[in-house]
């Protein structure tokens, strides 16, 4: 008897066809930064054929890359979302290197433009990187979220809004969710800097901020007063969290070369001490790279979909 290939069977079963969302790009007039900023957005399969409103996941990139990093072959957000038949909008904003904090140091737009040999985000044109004001937290709250809710068919309730990031983007995701629990109901991070003051090399906590080699940009953002750091440090912000206020997921690879795994363990310990429900996954051998992040993004997207379903804000797929 003639054999039938697996792929031939799939052709006979249209109900098994993969979802096919779209990624589009747009521009936001970011008044908090004094410039316009580009973003990418994933619109799920069925978005253009229905009148449904969709939950929104904000996806925050890490240090030294931009919103297009999510479309790289190792991350490929569209493929991950399609394979899950994700019925949610994913917003990928350009965060530059601001980690979505309002910097204590004023931006110098002209100095940024005039740099002949930029040391930050070398692949990115100065015109799309430099800002007049370094108020990145305000940019997220006052520019990005309102624009997305005005422009796309979103469910704009907090129960339908989530945020996730990798590396420094994980830090941004957690501080934004913890500082603005009225806007976000779920948060995730992959190898995120979730305990900024923790020193993995000796297990100590910073008690004061002093200038350190390689930390000039961080000190410019947060200042040299440790209280300025604590305002954005997810570990410190856990004290403001009540049980059940946020759905929390985070993971890290055991071979993370920058100490983020030790930060994650420290963060998990504090969550446990405070009796705060969370999901943490320790990934054997995982390193701090796109291969690891790309393998974990489907997990956080699934976590959010489960949360949305639990709260009745996830539209049924057709």
From TrEMBL:
<dbReference type="InterPro" id="IPR050583">
    <property type="entry name" value="Mycobacterial_A85_antigen"/>
</dbReference>
<dbReference type="InterPro" id="IPR000801">
    <property type="entry name" value="Esterase-like"/>
</dbReference>
<dbReference type="GO" id="GO:0016747">
    <property type="term" value="F:acyltransferase activity, transferring groups other than amino-acyl groups"/>
</dbReference>
<dbReference type="InterPro" id="IPR029058">
    <property type="entry name" value="AB_hydrolase_fold"/>
</dbReference>
<dbReference type="Pfam" id="PF00756">
    <property type="entry name" value="Esterase"/>
</dbReference>
<keyword id="KW-0732">Signal</keyword>
<feature type="signal peptide">
    <location>
        <begin position="1"/>
        <end position="19"/>
    </location>
</feature>
<protein>
    <submittedName>
        <fullName>Prolyl oligopeptidase family serine peptidase</fullName>
    </submittedName>
</protein>
């Amino acid at each position: 008897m003639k054999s039938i290939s697996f792929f031939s069977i799939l052709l006979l079963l249209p109900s098994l066809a993969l979802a096919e969302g779209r990624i589009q790009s747009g521009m936001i007039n970011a008044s908090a930064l004094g410039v316009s900023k580009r973003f990418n957005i994933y619109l799920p399969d069925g978005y253009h054929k229905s009148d449904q409103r969709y939950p929104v996941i904000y996806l925050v990139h890490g240090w030294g890359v931009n919103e297009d990093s999510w479309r790289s072959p190792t991350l490929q957000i569209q493929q991950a979302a399609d394979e899950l038949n994700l019925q949610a909008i994913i917003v990928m904003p350009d965060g530059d290197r601001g980690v979505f904090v309002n910097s204590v140091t004023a931006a110098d737009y002209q100095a940024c433009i005039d740099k002949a040999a930029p040391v930050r985000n070398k692949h990115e044109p100065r015109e799309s990187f430099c800002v007049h004001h370094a108020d990145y937290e305000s940019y997220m709250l006052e520019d990005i979220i309102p624009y997305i809710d005005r422009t796309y068919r979103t469910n704009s309730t907090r129960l339908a809004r989530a945020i996730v990031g990798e590396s420094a983007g994980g830090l941004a995701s957690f501080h934004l969710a913890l500082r603005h629990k009225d806007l976000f109901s779920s948060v995730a991070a992959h190898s995120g800097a979730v305990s900024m003051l923790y020193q993995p090399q000796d297990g100590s906590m910073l008690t004061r901020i002093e200038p350190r080699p390689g930390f000039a940009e961080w000190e410019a953002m947060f200042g040299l007063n440790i209280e300025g750091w604590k305002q954005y440090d997810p570990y410190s912000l856990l004290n403001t969290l009540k049980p059940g206020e946020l759905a929390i997921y985070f993971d890290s690879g055991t071979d993370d070369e920058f100490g983020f795994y030790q930060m994650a363990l420290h963060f998990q310990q504090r969550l446990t001490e405070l009796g705060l429900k969370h999901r943490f996954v320790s990934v054997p051998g995982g390193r701090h790279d796109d291969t690891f992040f790309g393998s974990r993004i489907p997990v956080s997207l699934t976590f959010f979909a489960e949360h949305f379903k639990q709260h009745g804000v996830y539209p049924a797929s057709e």
